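Slide 14.
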Amino acid sequence: MLSAGLVQDNTGNYYSLETNRNGYYGMMRYQDGWYNCNGQQVYLQFNQAHNNSFGAVINADGIEKLKAIYGVTRYNIGNETCTYTSTFQ
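Slide 15: predicted structure.
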């Protein structure tokens, strides 16, 4: 399981993972809104289309703030090879 705050896949998309130990540690964020990232409030917007990049962070200012807080962990996976095992509500 990845636990980095900001992950970039091999297609160039960025994904934000929960780093607070609040019962959701390591889960991918996908709902637009304000998030507490190491004590800093960051507004994030996500791709909601199921087009091989669901959940990718799409607002540039959010990506830049996450980079400043966490750095970037690059992970060699393309979303097109993922199997979704649950539905998002």
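Speaker note: Confidence is low (pLDDT under 50) at residues 85-89.
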